[in-house]
Design a protein that fits this description.
The protein is of the alpha+beta class. The chain has three helices and three strands.
């Protein structure tokens, strides 16, 4: 059956969806590149990710040559020095182990190795002047 010429084409029709919040964790530098790319393309981060996924599900590239050049620049700026070959090899650094020690908060990488100290972590609040 022939579709009427005056109706919207399949590509122009909207697709109603229900969006949900997701609690996904991603590598920090990758997120910075994605946020930068979304800003460059004037998209929300969610819209960018949906587009990437939909194209990937159909084995299509979601990006033009110009956008790929932009991604390369963003990767350089944010120090994302890995690519697709690292996708199943990414590992998280050990979590920081925070402990109180006297009047300061000491952060340990492991139980016996100090990593950093930040003087703003104090056990008591500074006293305010009396009015």
């Amino acid at each position: 059956m022939h579709q009427a010429e005056d109706g919207p084409s399949a590509q122009e029709r909207t697709v109603p969806v229900e969006r949900v919040q997701i609690g996904a964790r991603m590598e920090k530098r990758m997120v910075k590149v994605l946020k930068g790319l979304a800003e460059y393309l004037d998209l929300s981060l969610g819209d960018l990710l949906e587009g990437i996924v939909l194209h990937s599900f159909e084995s299509k590239s979601p990006f033009s040559e110009e956008t790929l050049r932009c991604i390369a620049q963003l990767k350089e700026v944010y120090g994302m020095d890995y690519g697709a070959s690292a996708s199943h090899r990414l590992t998280e650094a050990p979590p920081l182990n925070k402990q109180w020690k006297g009047d300061r908060h000491v952060i340990y990488r492991s139980a016996c190795e100090p990593h950093a100290y930040h003087p703003s972590f104090r056990t008591s609040q500074p006293s305010l002047p009396a009015l």
